Amino acid sequence: MGCCSARCMLILMCCLQLITALERQVFDFLGYQWAPIMINFFHIIMVILGLFGVIQYRSRYVIMYLLWTLLWVGWNVFVSCVYLDLGGLSKESDVLSLGVLSHRSWWKDNGPGCESDGLPSAGWQNQQNQQNPELTTVLSCWLEYQYIEILHCIVQLLISLLGFVYACYVVSTFSDEEDSFNFISEFHHPSKPSQLLF
Q: Interior CA angle at 29 toward 27 and 32, to 5°?
């Protein structure tokens, strides 16, 4: 097994997915976006199980990772459509917060270079401005929040698609190894029944 084998590359892709998913999870928690929080949580679990499958040569776990990757790609396309206002979806809707509260992306108020203008108020009202993002107006940002969210989705899509390709190859490699050897020092032929050697 070489240093740049498909198995090693899949391990690297899973580690990158874990790092980026954890980063995304933190910012979704800060924005109280409950649907992405739940989906990111499941994604982290599935990537850990896929990583376990790759390390332990368990093709079923890698296949589960493959199926989850397809769902994950669909989720990222959906989130991109929400932030781009495509397909009747709107970034101003509460679909990502599951309608619980009117929270939005953390990046909307805290993006790179954002200047926010809170309403002028006394000390106790200033504390309420910090708690209620509706009372804060964002004047300008270097990069608008929807583009930051879309960049998150693009990074996840690229890593997932590379992981999908490597996972397909690793599953085919694991399947070839499982079919060609039956661990009793003989090759297995499906046409003849295997006999135990005593």
A: 115
DSSP-derived secondary structure letter, 101: S
d(CA 33, CA 142): 23
Instruction: Quote the strand ranges of 29-165, DSSP E.
Output: 115-118, 136-140
- Give the Å distances, CA to CA, from 46 to 52, 90, 98, 136, 171: 10, 29, 23, 38, 16
The pair phi, psi for residue 81, each rounded to 5°, is -65, -35
pTM: 0.73
Residues in the chain: 198
Cβ-in-10-Å burial (0-12, 13-18, 19+) of 47 comes to buried
CA R_g for the chain: 23
Q: Taking a C-beta distance cutoff of 8 angstroms, is the pair 178, 97 a contact?
A: no
Residue ranges in the chain whose pLDDT is less than 50: 1, 119-129, 133, 135, 187-194, 196-198
Q: If we measure between CA atoms, which residue out of 22, 143, 146, 35 comes closest to residue 82?
A: 146
DSSP 135: G
Question: What's CA 68's distance to the chain center, in Å?
Answer: 10
d(CA 107, CA 125): 23
> Any idea what DSSP says for residue 105?
-
CB-count burial class (<10 Å; 0-12, 13-18, 19+) for 64? middle
